Amino acid sequence: RKESKNVRYYHGDITHLNDLKAIGRNFDGIVHLAGLSRASDGFKEPNKCLHVNVIGTANILDFARSTEIRPWVLLGSTIESAKNIYGLSKYIGELCAERYALDFDLKVLALRFASVYGSGRDNSDKVIPKLITRALSDQEIVIDNAKVAIDFVHISDLVAGICRGAGFLEAISEESFYDVAPLCTGHNTTLVKLVELITGETGSKSI
Fold first, then answer.
1. Do the bridges between strand 29-32 and strand 72-78 make them parallel or antiparallel, or are there none, so unpaired?
2. Which of 5, 15, 126, 143 has its Cβ near the most Cβ atoms within 10 Å?
3. 67: exposed, middle or buried (Cβ count in 10 Å: 0-12, 13-18, 19+)
4. Number of Cβ atoms within 10 Å of the Cβ of 13
5. Which residues contact 44 (CB under 8 A, 6 or more apart)?
6. pTM of the entire predicted model
7. Closest Cα to residue 161, out of 143, 144, 185, 138?
8. Which of 171, 62, 167, 69 is nearest to 111 (CA)?
9. Which of 195, 184, 197, 207 is nearest to 76 (CA)?
10. Cα 131 from Cα 99, distance rounded (Å)
11. Lowest mean pLDDT among 80-89, 109-118, 125-134
12. CA–CA distance, 43 with 173 (Å, rounded to integer)
């Protein structure tokens, strides 16, 4: 990655507070999107998921609290319930954010993301990339739980929502603020319907 006049890159680990402090303190806000972002990650490595998503988020908040300017913090969260380790880790992160906002005069907005799709860098084993790959090669598609319904949001809409959230925090005059907002379509799509859409658009012979 090349640095530019307006962009500077730092490599670090949010679970290491000293890595965050090395960035300095001359900025207006933090968009916190780092972490383990899938329920399957929490199932495979529950301790790591909790460590990264809870301790990492607490470090981001503590870093913001330690600065003189007190930057606003936009926190990437999830609409996933706390019924699994991943959802629990994000929920605890929200609780930490609320306490830091109210106790240490921070402005924090937690955006609860739906299931994101549309990026060329997406994980190939996520449901939409996996189904598209199988459909394009006419492979058999098996759905374990046809009644599962998911709210999918395109990455371009997600980026637009994040930008609006940052602008919202910039405009707030209060020293202390905390709120949550969903960043989703509000419409769930069943896996059966998703398969129908993908096979129809690709002209696939998959069944």
1. parallel
2. 15
3. middle
4. 13
5. none
6. 0.90
7. 185
8. 167
9. 184
10. 41
11. 125-134
12. 41
**Who contacts 32 (Cβ-Cβ below 8 Å, separation ≥6)?**
14, 57, 60, 73, 74, 75, 76
**Number of residues that make up the chain:** 207
Q: Quote the longest CA-to-CA distance of the chain.
A: 61
Per-position b or e across 14-36, b if 16+ CB within 10 A of its CB: bbebeebeeeeeeeeebbbebbb
Short-list 43, 163, 59, CA closest to 109: 163
Would you say 100 and 57 are in contact if contact means Cβ atoms under 8 Å apart? no
Q: How far apart are the first and last CA of the chain?
A: 42
Give the Cα separation of 132 and 130 in Å (integer).
Answer: 6
Q: How far is CA 89 from the centre of its chain?
A: 12
pLDDT tens profile 13-65? 999 999 999 888 778 999 999 999 888 889 999 999 999 999 999 999 999 99
Residue type, 88: L
